[in-house]
Specification:
about 70 residues, 5 helices, about 0% strand
Length: about 70
Amino acid sequence: MPDDTVTRFLKALSPEHRAEVERLPREDRERLADAWEAELVKDHDLDILSELSPPAAESEAARRVVEGPS
């Protein structure tokens, strides 16, 4: 369900990023949430972090998606 993914994504964001993303149109929030899930799956460093702290891995992936490439 897209809403469940978006809700989980929003929870993983910092308060500042969450407010920013909540102002976006629904389609953009869903696109970012999908990118967040893909980031969690593809990044092996996040896999290691996830074993130690799943919320930290989710938060890091959310930050990367919102801030984009460095």
